[in-house]
Specification:
single chain; 203 residues; alpha+beta; Pnp Oxidase, Chain A; 2 domains; seven-stranded antiparallel β-sheet; globular
């Protein structure tokens, strides 16, 4: 295997970035980037902990990540599986990255920053839905923001409805759990109960 082992070799292979690739990066949430964040119902959150990297999905109604000001984002931690991988990592290393996506839109938006886990009561309550507040809110100090062009989304045909797979084309949650646990958990009963459980535990 022939590997690239130096920055000089890497830059020689790829060449210099175009001006558009450089001017799009800012150190704050400018108005055009705020519009993107406020329209986005989904983001992935990347963190780094003592056991390595983690990337997990975050989603809710458009604007679920609140722009408090041009240097601060607020991300409520909604109900999940209680593994709290991201939060444990942030306690170890506050650096994080977000990738915002909007259905039907090719461009994505990337944010790099540092997170603090807040349990301030008024802040938690401001994110309540159906009377249920998140247990924590991630306060993100923004270091860099820039949009990513649409090439990856176009190549993947991510928003093409003709490319959607039927659910049975890949293993279900119950099937994956059963296979990993030698049938101790998961299975058909798990899959059957999942839609109602999701409905009643979203918040």
């Amino acid at each position: 295997m022939t590997a690239i082992t130096s920055l000089a070799a890497l830059q020689s292979l790829y060449g210099e970035p175009a001006e558009a690739s450089l001017v799009k990066e800012t150190d704050r949430v400018v108005p055009v980037y705020r519009s993107f964040i406020e329209a986005s119902p989904f983001a992935t959150l990347a963190t780094r902990g003592p056991e390595g990297l983690d990337c997990s999905p975050r989603g809710d109604g458009p604007g679920f990540v609140r722009v408090q000001d041009e240097k601060t984002l607020l991300l409520p931690d909604r109900r999940g599986n209680n593994r709290i991988d991201s939060l444990r990592n942030i306690l170890h290393d506050p650096h994080l990255a977000l990738l915002f996506m909007i259905p039907g839109i090719g461009e994505t938006l990337r944010v790099n920053g540092r997170g603090t886990i807040s349990v301030e009561p008024a802040l938690l309550e401001s994110f309540a839905i159906d009377g249920k507040a998140p247990k924590t809110v991630l306060v993100i100090d923004v270091d860099a923001v820039f949009f990513q062009c649409s090439r990856a989304i176009v190549r993947a045909e991510l928003w093409n409805p003709d490319k959607r797979l039927p659910r049975e084309a890949v293993p279900s949650a119950g099937q994956m759990l059963a296979g990993l646990s030698e049938n101790r958990v998961g299975g058909e009963a798990y899959d059957k109960a999942l839609p109602e459980r999701l409905k009643t535990t979203l918040y």
